[in-house]
Design a protein that fits this description.
With 351 residues, the chain is α/β, with parallel strands linked by helices. The chain contains 14 helices and 10 strands.
Amino acid sequence: VSRQSSAKSEYDMSKETARRSLDLAFRSPSPHLKLEFQGGEPLLNFPLVRWIVAEAKRRNEVHGKQLAFVIATNLALLDDDIIDFCGREDVYLSTSLDGPADLHNGNRRRPGQDSWERTVSGIRTVQQKLGPDRVSALMTTTEASLDRPQDIINSYAELGLRHVFLRPISPYGFALRRRGGAGYGVHRWLTFYEAGLDHIIDLNRHGVPMVEAYTAIVAKKMFTNDDPGYVDLTSPAGIGLGALVYNYDGDVYASDEGRMLAEMNDHTFRLGNVHRSSYRDIMLSDQLLQPLQESFTLSAPMCSTCAFEPYCGADPVFHHATMGDFAGQKTMSAFCQRNMGVFSAVLRRAR
């Protein structure tokens, strides 16, 4: 709802754009609807966040969906008014935490080098006033993270955060440009991941509850009949079907990664605009149907004969960004190498 860190600007979503976005969101046939506010920093446009929550609840009196709300924020603008609103309206908060202070501040620079202090203060405030389950955090694995999985996980445990997602850096968007590229290959990330996973297992054995989020999703898919529906592990891909992204200017994207590609002047995954496109136009657009068709793993070369196919999925945005086509060359695909490494690591530890 807000792209940048200034006061009211041209990058703030208007109420009319928000209204039209809600029109499309409530066209979804799903009985569950989660609205997540992202930026930039959505709390810079908090009056609109407040309006959208109220309007969504008003509409839902007719639609009867299971509604959920999440604000993705750095927590720096958190105040009593926002906390009271989140408590009253059952809004959850999500933030970024890359690990200990030196690591987080190095990744997320700001004047005063106090990014970590502000984030931790916000996390503790939400935990104290709303409860420990009302705020979650995500980390991004940079070059500086690779030798410190235990430190990163311990920093989560010390804050009472029981879930950590040891996710690799994305090959698109501001995160890549600001950090000068991933700077490491899949095998280095897998070494980091496995060391972190072993540490998490050890913490649980010693009475400290901790979950690696991606491992939990993978394990649920591998060992139960209850598919978690995680968008990167579905066939065809979950883009557009599991989520839609409504940008501040009304453009609609198949995924947040697709929106990040647009920031790099690649509009492949732009499906339409809320001011000009109908729900049918968006959901039946070639920009969505073509990558979905090419992401069907049972007919994709090498996927169809892979032992891990029942557990895996497809990520046409990743493959387009890294290889220039929706399916990707599987022998060279970091997506495939990473997932096969994770599946193997889970199986080894499940024996």
